[in-house]
Design a protein that fits this description.
Length: 88
Amino acid sequence: MQKTVKANAIKRLKSASGHLDHVIKQVEQEKYCIDILQQSLAVQSALRAVDNIILKGHLEEHVVQAMHGKDKEKSIQEVVDVFEKARK
């Protein structure tokens, strides 16, 4: 994993972790449901951002190389499989 990809992913994951901690506290304190949902959506958004950072890094670092070699089909299938899981 590229250093910049790793740093950006960690930054976003820590942000998501902070939002999640806040959601947990809100639920424990029985806060207003809409406020909890808004924080939950922020967690989900942060995690999607992490997914995008990691996917872009993977495409740049690994898939580009694989497209010129014998692992072309395997690399394509890996990316397709990830997208299929994301849609479930």
